[in-house]
Amino acid sequence: MTLFSQHSRVWQTSLMIVVVVAVFSWLQSLPIxxxxxxxxxxxxxxxxxxxxxxxxxxxxxxxxxxxxxxxxHFLYHVILTPFVSLMDPLIGIxxxxxxxxxxxxxxxxxxxxxETAPWPWLWLIVLITxxxxxxxxxxxxxxxxxxxxxxxxxxxxxxxxxxxLFFWSWFFVWFYxxxxxxxxxxxxxxxxxxxxxxxxxxxxxxxxxxxxIKLMGRNFWSHKNKMVWLAGLSGLLAGIIINPYFPTNxxxxxxxxxxxxxxxxxxxxxxxxxxxxxxxxxxxxxxLPLLIWLLATLIMFFNIKKQTKLSWSSWLxxxxxxxxxxxxxxxxxxxxxxxxxxSAIIVRxxxxxxxxxxxxxxxxxxxxxxxxxxxCLIMLAVYxxxxxxxxxxxxxxxxxxxxxxxxxxxxxxxASDWLQxxxxxxxxxxxxxxxxxxxxxxxxxxxxxxTGLDQTFMYEYNADQxxxxxxxxxxxxxxxxxxxxxxxxxxxxxxEKRHAASLRYLNREPxxxxxxxxxxxxxxxx
Length: 526
What we know:
This protein has helices spanning 3-27, 37-51, 74-85, 89-114, 120-128, 131-137, 143-158, 162-175, 180-205, 209-220, 223-241, 249-261, 279-285, 287-302, 309-327, 332-350, 356-366, 374-404, 413-422, 437-443, 455-461, 463-473, 480-487, 500-507, and strands at 32-33, 407-408, 429-431, 492-496, 513-517, 521-525. The chain is mainly alpha-helical. The model has no long low-confidence stretch (mean pLDDT 86).
């Protein structure tokens, strides 16, 4: 490598870093936190810093967390500590999201460069202009860093870095709850490797299908594949057992499995990210990376003999996460990177001994005669030159608009301050929306609440009480006062004004004493 090419690579990498950081800085410039969970993460980080590891959680009185709390983002909160300590905590988590989101994008580009994929700027532009991915990466939550971390794990798997994979898997269990993805990645990588190695063997020997299946089983359990499984699974197991929350974390593992498999959205009001994504809407949201991936897939089958284990395994991972994204829309945060990685590796493999004249000759024969004219190609180029930049800009603006539709940094702070000054320590506050819990918890740990973070925890704790709470807070029951006071033992009721039906019933209830009101909420003494 010449000195000039070294300097060129340094400048290119530096420019990529500047572009990515600039995009996430622009997205984080709003004085808003798009996800209420960010308030919870900040508060837990502060409490762990000031009082040591948090093991009891009485702040959700009607949730599994009351009796079996684990901080399943423990390592994320450790990493978050300097951000909430060196500056205003809520500004700190926004700065962390800026940094972590940038690192995740750069980790994907790093992986592609390590695998010598061409056109890094193309893949970077696709990533940083996709609105669902940008939105998820910009939230003050663990996914902002976990997305990049999962692809580093993929690198360790495909490069057979056993020791690194062991410790990275261990780290991931402590960091974030999507660690089962590592098992899926190991499974896909080893199965594809076994199939391709077996096919290459029988292609020479001419073995029967029966022998191929036997050979595939032998290749699947080859020494290298065994070591990958051993490193990954032992690391995950170590993360589960050698864990500050063991054995309580086993209860959460059961719940995590249920959340991944059971369609809770059919009977529990869970977060929007867990709801299915209509196929047409999903395709519209990821149209550019999906279109590129479909074109790459077409190229792949035209150049089937050139494809490597990596192109097949990344292609299969894209299929898996496409299906999973239909089931739970949050999975698009992995689908988009997988589609980009798959496209890049397919292009890399297909460009071996590539001749543009031969390629155009083949494609030319497939096109209808009117489209074979040069003016058609010119029109296509003009169309792309005009409308592609508009589409890319729309992705950025859509992500920013989504982030702007969140919570002001001081939302519910006045009401929380009033409760802290005028209530007894440990008084239960009946909240009419589970999404308000993180903000109330951040501003006021003096009081206890009913539920928050995830409604499946309230449902599993007591399904009957969950339904009672839902009916009372959605206007299906007029006796919200009695439900709050006698069924949930609440001393206070905090009502967001947008709950019109509950507000109407409480205004008719003479026993409900209105003691506080602002533009956002009303507090009643019960």
